[in-house]
Amino acid sequence: MNRTYTFGLRGHDMGTDFQSMCENGVKNHIKSIQFAMAKTVLDIDFDKIGFDEAVAEKIRKKLIECGFSVPVLGCYINPIDEDAERLEQSLRRFEAFIQYASVFGAGVVGTETGIAVSSDESAYRKKYLQFVRNLERLLEKAEQFGVCIGIEPTRCGAVCSPQVMYQIIRDMGSDKIKVILDLSNMLAADTVSFQRKILDDSFELFGDRIQTVHLKDFNFVDGKKQFAAPCEGMMDIPHLFELLSGVREKPAIILDKLKLDGYSAAMERLQPHCHQ
């Protein structure tokens, strides 16, 4: 395998709790994880405790013991929630996770951008501006702790295309904004034929900002998306790796929605693409 690429899994695809995640990851020689703490560290209410130095240090030591790097600390909130109380709780959680990320050495704290796309352009614009305001708040914390925020564009989100992602990068003017590229999340049945263009636009506009790639293959059956193991669906994986080969700083690659028992076979199928 080409060592310039780092492959891994989501922690909650490795185990239903922190202990099983760690045990299974070590047993299967996983070295890189997307770590959604709230989905695996189940005995702690992170909304109640916020950032806790003792908790952070305990988790950090275990991650090191297991040999895990953390390219993404998952904190997938809805940053345009219309419920003000729930939104504030989400933003405070993200701010706390920025502090945890600084302890764990995580590449980014990652989130999607909420459901915003609408046939009403003014309604979408309102959601987009709300996202920008909240991102500005989170960036203050990120700058304070030297942590990056990973934004995952999705076709229905406030950041719904490569062009909007580029606009965010340009307008925010912060090197703390990175991209989590998930091609599957930017496609629907009627746009799947444009996947090469979406990839091309992404790498042209912000290839140097892509910190993590979610490799999540897919098929469309009767217009509905069904996820598939890598190289067993419709994703143009050869073109993705062709573009990745031209990036100096290779992003971490997370095999999203893949269970441990399919990891070895997936890596065998991906191997030829890593040597382009």
Structural class: alpha/beta
User: How are the strands of the largest sheet arranged?
Assistant: 1-2-3-4-5-6-7-10
Instruction: Describe the sheet with the most strands.
Output: 8 strands, parallel, barrel
Helix percentage range: 40-55%
- What is the number of strand segments? 10
Shape: globular
Tell me which oligomeric state these chains represent. single chain
Per DSSP, the total helix count is: 10
Unreliable sequence segments: none
Mean pLDDT: 96
- Spell the H/E element sequence: EHEHHHEHEHEHEHEEEHEH
Strand content: 15-25%
Q: Distance N terminus to C terminus?
A: 12 Å
- C-alpha Rg, in Å? 18 Å
Explain what you see.
The protein is α/β, with parallel strands linked by helices. It has 10 helices and 10 strands. It has helices at 18-27, 37-40, 46-49, 53-66, 84-104, 121-145, 162-172, 195-206, 237-244, 263-270, and strands at 6-10, 32-35, 69-74, 108-111, 149-151, 177-181, 210-214, 217-221, 224-228, 252-254. The strands form 2 sheets. The protein has an 8-stranded parallel barrel with strand order 1-2-3-4-5-6-7-10, surrounded by 4 helices. It has a two-stranded antiparallel sheet with strand order 8-9. Strand 4 (108-111), helix 6 and strand 5 (149-151) form a beta-alpha-beta unit. Helix 5 packs parallel to helix 6 (121-145), helix 7 packs parallel to helix 8 and helix 8 (195-206) packs parallel to helix 9 (237-244). The longest helix is centred in the middle third of the chain and has 25 residues, at 121-145. It is globular.
